[in-house]
Design the sequence.
């Protein structure tokens, strides 16, 4: 694999990539079956490299290694502060190789090099943040009745299976490794089949940082095979998953037999509400960023854009102007603003919704087509005149497609914002603090933004109401989901 750059040019050369192994018990190995699958470059549709394909047998080896590391390895006896130091070390190594990792992330996921650089900073921040937590996870002494001393210990849940998607490959890895490792768990992670490269590179760095063998295991493979095997494995205590709602339902059912703990970070159809009293320029830029950041491939994408009736026409006009100017192209070119969607499957899904939106009577204002002949690019798309019951107002499209709806008042828009099965994020743009706080209180969403969008920091809890998830990631909140609380009671005298 190429060390990308030493002089950090803003546009990077296309990295060349070696074939990818699996990482089990501190070693890079082929899959038991010897099978491989291709990693695809979404900007061209071409193959980047071959990737070892894990299945049940590899999952079993990884889980055994993780269990051994949890119960008898050096990790099980390590001081919490030393676990923290390993996370700091890993953060330093990622930071040192951030340019190389950003280039690989951009190549494989299609995100722009600028966005990839931003993700890498998030990865470093997250690993450091949780490194800091490692020796601050405390129990309590409890004023129990009778002549006893009762106290609580917070211990690792155990072997954690982590299944991540392709939209933020390294950031999702960090969000899941950080709290799991701070709390002393061991990990078997399955990367997304679309983005199997960068996680394996970070596994190399984890080895260099000095994590004991078996603490971190990283697999590639398909969801229905490797992912499913991890979910049903009796040696796994918890599954942490980010992805589609329908996949989460399958996982929750499959996890029932072993009563595994599950946490889910799922999709959304997040309402972004613009009032007439908002700063027009900022709100247009905010609504634009809300939907088109990373080509709409964000669980928090502001895909339901509610605009107050009296500014509707002007607002949508300005948004369309910006959309038409967006520069699509090679994600490794620093001047590119939007790269390709991640896969043919996503391209087809998005164009399917564009068709459906038109059939159901929405007004396709701009975009709506594939861009270029190769790769999986989609033009920034705006549907105006959307009604609440249209598919494009209800379903997660996960592409650069915004549905614009009109509203008249606060009560009405809160009620409509909440009439969805999702509840991940919501935003309001207004100068009226009464409206802002009323909305923040009443909207059913795990994250609410006022006059901003997509501000997600490792320090703040992140997750969904309703079918957008279970549990929270980031912040102190994540630690709850990676520890078991034990009560110890001692008879006194
Ligand atoms: P997905 O939910 O199928 O895949 C996410 C991860 O789960 C991947 O690692 C996959 O291999 C694994 N997986 C799939 N089926 C599994 C199973 N039966 N058991 C265990 N693991 C399994 O999502 P996909 O197909 O990549 O994207 C489909 C849609 O999901 C997108 O269009 C988008 O709407 C949504 N999505 C939401 C994300 C989010 O950030 N919340 C991220 C990615 C996708
Ligand atoms: Mg899927």
Sequence:
């Amino acid at each position: 694999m190429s060390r990308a750059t030493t002089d950090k040019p803003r546009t990077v050369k296309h990295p060349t990539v070696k074939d990818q192994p699996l990482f089990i018990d501190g070693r890079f190995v082929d899959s038991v079956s010897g099978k491989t699958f291709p990693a695809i470059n979404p900007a061209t549709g071409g193959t980047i490299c071959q990737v070892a394909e894990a299945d049940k047998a590899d999952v079993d080896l990884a889980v055994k290694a993780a269990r051994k590391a949890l119960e008898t390895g050096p990790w099980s006896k390590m001081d919490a502060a030393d676990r923290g130091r390993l996370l700091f070390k890993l953060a330093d190594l990622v930071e040192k190789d951030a340019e190389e990792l950003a280039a690989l992330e951009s190549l494989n996921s299609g995100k722009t090099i600028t966005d990839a650089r931003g993700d890498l900073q998030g990865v470093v921040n997250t690993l450091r943040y949780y490194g800091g937590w490692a020796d601050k996870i405390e129990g309590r002494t409890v004023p129990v009745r009778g002549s006893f001393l009762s106290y609580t210990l917070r211990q690792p849940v155990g072997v954690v299976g982590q299944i991540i998607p392709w939209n933020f490959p390294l950031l999702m890895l960090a969000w899941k490794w950080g709290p799991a490792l701070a709390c002393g768990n061991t990990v078997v992670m399955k990367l997304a089949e679309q983005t199997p490269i960068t996680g394996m590179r970070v596994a190399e760095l984890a080895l260099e940082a000095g994590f004991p063998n078996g603490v971190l295991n990283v697999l590639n493979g398909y969801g229905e095979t490797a992912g499913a095997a991890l979910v049903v494995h009796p040696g796994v205590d918890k599954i942490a998953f980010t992805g589609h709602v329908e996949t989460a339902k399958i996982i929750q059912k499959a996890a029932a037999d072993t009563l595994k703990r599950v946490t889910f970070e799922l999709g959304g159809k997040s309402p972004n509400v613009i009032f007439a009293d908002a700063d027009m320029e900022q709100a247009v830029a905010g609504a634009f960023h809300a939907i088109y950041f990373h080509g709409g491939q964000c669980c928090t994408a502001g895909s339901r854009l509610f605009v107050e009736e009296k500014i509707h026409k002007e607002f949508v006009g300005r948004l369309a102007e910006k959309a038409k100017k967006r520069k699509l192209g090679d994600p490794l070119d620093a001047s590119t603003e939007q790269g390709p969607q991640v896969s043919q499957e996503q391209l087809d899904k998005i164009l399917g919704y564009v068709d459906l939106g038109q059939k159901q009577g929405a007004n396709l204002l701009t975009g709506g087509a594939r861009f270029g002949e190769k790769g999986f690019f989609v033009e920034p798309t705006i549907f105006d005149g959307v009604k609440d019951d249209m598919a494009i107002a209800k379903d997660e499209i996960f592409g650069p497609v915004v549905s614009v709806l009109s509203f008249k008042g606060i009560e009405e828009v809160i009620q409509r914002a909440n009439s969805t099965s999702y509840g991940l994020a919501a935003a309001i743009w207004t100068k009226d603090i009464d409206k802002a706080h009323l909305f923040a209180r009443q909207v059913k969403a795990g994250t609410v933004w006022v006059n901003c969008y997509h501000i997600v920091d490792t320090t703040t809890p992140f997750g969904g109401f309703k079918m957008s998830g279970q549990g929270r990631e980031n912040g102190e909140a994540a630690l709850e989901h990676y520890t078991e609380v034990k009560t110890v009671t001692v008879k006194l005298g």
Q: What stands out?
A: The longest helix spans residues 113-133. Residues 1-7 have pLDDT under 50 and may be disordered. The chain has 16 helices and 22 strands. The CA atoms of residues 17 and 403 lie 39 Å apart.
